[in-house]
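re: ur question from earlier - yeah i can do the single chain one, its not a big deal. heres the input i used so u can compare w yours
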Amino acid sequence: MSATDIKKVWMDGELVDYAKATVPILSHTLHYGTGAFEGIRAYQASDGSTNIFRGRDHLQRLVDSVKVIGLTFPHTVDDLLEACRKTVRANDLKECYLRPIAYLGDSHRGLKLPDGVAMKVAIIAWAWGKYMGDEGQQKGIRVMVCSYRRPDISTGLPWAKLNGAYIYSVLARRQATYSGVDE
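and the output i got, formated as tokens:
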């Protein structure tokens, strides 16, 4: 499935067309990494229903991650779980990957954020097969230890799933690709 196959995105309480689900170029999250996200799988059960795997746990971590950086989260976990269900249905998916993301708009510039700033939230769902593909699961994959190291625990917030913290994972994955291994 490509991005053009995504029909609807949930944004702060409303399902909007994918093409209209935009974030301002001056988003604080884009410039400074002040955001949090989750990656959640949804699977089709034997009765045909779709189950969101540990949805409540993932969404609680999203809320907690935003609180760790001192920002206000505008939705409850229950609201987000229902929003995930709506997003899956709106995209006619039985199995999918869900990406809830909390981000800041463009109302603040610079490093100092005033108290009480509320995050915006979007939830995207798309069909996405096995992470390493069917072949990787059947035949195995080749891996390596990369030269990038995660920052020391005292330099960040490792219990929070924050946007900016994932650059090391991106760089490590890229190094693996350039080295000719799978992961």
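Residues 49 and 56 are 17 Å apart (CA to CA). not sure if urs matches, ping me
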